[in-house]
Amino acid sequence: MAIVIKTPEQIEGIRKSSQLAAKTLKHLEQFIKAGITTRELDQIVETFVRDNGAIPATKGYKGYKYASCISPNEVVCHGVPNDYTLKEGDIVNIDVTTILGGFFGDTCKMYTVGNVSEYAQRLIDVTKECLRLGMNEVKPNAHLGNVGAIIANHAHKHGYSVVFEFCGHGVGIKFHEEPDVPHIAEKNTGPILKEGMVFTIEPMINAGKARCKIDRKDGWTARTIDGRLSAQFEHTILVTATGYEALTDVYGDF
Length: 254
Fold this sequence. Notes:
The protein is α+β, with helices and mostly antiparallel strands. The protein has a single domain (8-246), classed as Creatinase/methionine aminopeptidase superfamily (Creatine Amidinohydrolase). The chain has four helices and 15 strands. The strands form five sheets. Strands 1, 2, 4 and 5 form a four-stranded antiparallel beta sheet that branches. A hairpin with a 2-residue loop joins strand 4 and strand 5 (103-112). Helix 1 (8-28) packs across helix 2 (38-51) and helix 3 packs antiparallel against helix 4. The longest helix has 21 residues, at 8-28. It is globular and about 45 Å long. The two termini are 31 Å apart.
């Protein structure tokens, strides 16, 4: 399938959906504290998204039953909300995709529960840096592989590994479109970026080994193979005439 170049009208729709996804993550900040379950957080996500006239894209997607993916500690991605109760020192990723007016916006971020270890905070900080560096490689006529090349270089420099079993993806008109966006790649490889492309960059960085294992009970939750911590940040990115716009970066975090 070809990479879809979005029209100005489509871009505006994707921007609005992306902004709502970002606002959902901001809304969650007040609830991230010891004693709340990931299932309760998911219910907060669904209520906020629907109250704002949108639909949570994950609910019903390939049989998935929840409005978000919530991934604490060693969970890399696709964490299924359940009765796990957040505790002091946890780190947790929450991933939200909204459908607003038929358009998709996709984002995730890390939260800390109370005081976390320097070890955990350093992983979070480096992962956020990886996303920022990756976004800075986005501009017309550049190779998409440059995104993964700089992300992997930065992560490896700090002693971390990069998950290769999951990647970013085109988004906007559908939940998942072309192209795949690997977070570990060779420089000057992959598709040439063009104005109007929209895709996610969402590096998953592990403190230990890069491999993941899928929970057999729920068929979704991906954990680090060695039980060590993982972190992830994600933005929906538009290629502009001069560089990029992070459509989900409503609060200027990057």
